[in-house]
Amino acid sequence: MSKAVPASVSLALALTACAGGGETGAGASKNAGFSVAVAEPDHLTPGRGSTANEESRVLFAPLVKVDPEGGLSYVQAKSVTSADARHWTIELRPGWTFHNGEPVTAQSYADGWNRTAYGPNAWAANGQLANIEGYAALNPAKGKPKTKELSGLKVVGDTTLKVTLTAPDSQFPLQLTPNQLGFYPLPEAAVTDPEAYDRKPIGNGPFKMDTAWTVDKGTTVSRYSSYKGPAPASSAITFKSYSDLQTAYTDAQAGNTDVIGVPLSKYGSAKADFGDRLYTYEAPSLEFLSLPLYDKRFQDVRLRKALSLAIDRDVVNKTLYGGLYTPATSLTPPSEVGARTGLCDACSFDPAEAKRLLKEAGGWSGELPITYPGGLGLDELYKAIANQIRQHLGIDGVEARPTADWPEFSDKVFGKKLTGPYHAHWGALYPSMQSTLRGIFTTAGGCYVCSNYSDPDVDDLLRRADGAKTPAEAEALYNGAQERVLKDFPVVPLFYGTYVYASTDRVSGVTVGPADLDLDRISVTG
C-alpha cells in the first residue's frame, strides 16, 4: 500500500480488505486473558466521553483503519468512495452484528452519528461531525435545535450510507479511523436505555463486555464469537482502573498488571526496568511551547526564533526521556501521512544565532516565566528548558513556573493571562496533517489557544488541500501550509510524541500502531 492519503476524483480508495481474513470467533485459539491498565473512564459510550479509547477500540470495530505502512484498510466498510470529495458513499459489509445479535446497518451508523452531533447531548466527540451538512442546525448558537438528525446523512437500505459534507474534504476517510469515537455505530439499546448502555456498551467489535464497569475497579471483556473480522489473539482482557500511572508501573514490574502505558516521568528508566518488553511507536502528536502573541513583547519573530534556537532538544531527550522522544523539525509529526520533516530551520540548536537574533529584537528585560500544569510530571522538562534559555540567551529572569493543577493552567491559557511561554500538546485523533494544522493554526481549531495565530494565506492553503484532487496535491498543499506558518514561527516545536508501553513476560505480540495500542493482537504465553 502507498502511504498516500486517498483523495478525490473517482475516490475509489484502493484500500486493503482486512476484514474477512483469518480465523474468527469460535475457531480461534483459546488463549487465556491478560490485564491492561487504564484510567477511570468518564463514559463508555463511544463519542460521549474522552477517556475510554482503549475500551472502545476492542468493543467496537471502525469503518477503516490505518495500517503500519500508513495506508488505509477497510474493516466494517466495504468501500468509501467519492467523485468530488464532498459527496461520499459508504458501503458496509453485510452480515455484521452487534454483541446482542442485532444487525449492524447503515441506520446504526446514522443513529450513532446523529446522537454524537446533537448539541444538547454535549458529547465529547461532537465536533468530529462538524463538517457534515446539518451540523450547524443541531448546534445553534442560541436556543434548542429544531431537528435531531444531520441533513447530510441519507440511509439507503441496510448497507449504504450517503454522506454530504459542507465542503470538499479529501481527508474524510482518515476521519473514520478508530480514535475518532464519534463515527462508531450504536444499537437500539443505546437509545432506549442510554445510562445502562453507558455502563455496559454493546458494540460490533472483537470483544464484548461480560459485566458492567465497576467504578475504580474496571471490567473484563471476552472474545465475541460472531465477530466478522480477524479473531483476537486472546480470549479475554481485564481492564484495571488506575488513578495513578506510577502505581500501574509498579504493578507491572511486580507482574500484577500485564500491559501499561509508561508515565512520562519513567521514560528515562523504562528501558532498564523492562528491557525488550518496552514498546514504542511515533504518535501523531506534537509537544511545543506556546507563546502569548497577544503580548506585544512577543510580536517580533526574531525573539520567537531565538527562544527556539537556544534549546538543545537532543540533550533534553537523552537526559530526561532516555532518547524515546524525537526532536521536532516540523509542525506535523512524520506519523501523519505525507508529512515532511526538516522544515523548521529554527528547531536546530544554535546558541550563537539565538543570541544574535535576540540582540536584533532588542533583547529581553525582566521576568520570563514558562508556565505549565503542575502534577503531571512535567517539572523536569520545563526546568531543563528554562535552564537552557537562561544559559544560552543570558536571560536571568527565566523561570519554570507550575500552576497548582490543570484547571488553573487552563484558566490562565483561555483567559490570556500568561506573560511568557507555556506548555502545549496536540494529539491528532486521525493521522492527517489536516488535523494538526487546522487544530492549532486556525481560529476554529480545537487548540487555537495553543498558538494564538491564524493567517489568510494559511487558511487558503488548507482549504485547497482539503479539496485536492490527488493525494500528492493534498500533501504538497498541507506541507506548504506548514511552511507558511513556520515563516511566522508562532510556536516553538519541541518533540514529536511517542507511544510508550511496557508489559510483563506473560504476554507477547504487543504492537503499538497508528491508532495506539493494538490490544486484539496481544496473546498470553505464560
Task: Note the main attributes of this structure.
526 residues; alpha+beta; D-Maltodextrin-Binding Protein, domain 2; Dipeptide-binding Protein, domain 3; 2 domains; 5-stranded antiparallel beta sheet; 4-stranded mixed beta sheet; 22 strands
Structure description:
This protein has 526 residues and is of the alpha+beta class. It contains 15 helices and 22 strands. It folds into 2 domains: 16-258 and 504-524, Periplasmic binding protein-like II (D-Maltodextrin-Binding Protein, domain 2, 3-Layer(aba) Sandwich); 281-499, Roll (Dipeptide-binding Protein, domain 3), CATH 3.10.105.10. It has helices at residues 53-59, 106-117, 135-138, 189-192, 194-199, 245-253, 267-274, 301-309, 313-321, 351-360, 379-393, 406-414, 433-441, 456-466, 471-488; strands at 16-17, 34-39, 64-66, 72-74, 77-82, 87-92, 153-156, 160-164, 207-209, 218-223, 236-242, 259-261, 278-290, 326-327, 368-373, 398-403, 422-427, 492-503, 507-508, 512-513, 516-517, 523-524. Strands 12, 13, 14, 17 and 18 form a 5-stranded antiparallel sheet that branches. The chain has a 4-stranded mixed sheet with strand order 2-11-10-9. The chain has a 4-stranded antiparallel sheet with strand order 5-6-8-7, with helices on one face. A hairpin with a 4-residue loop joins strand 5 (77-82) and strand 6. Helix 14 packs antiparallel against helix 15.
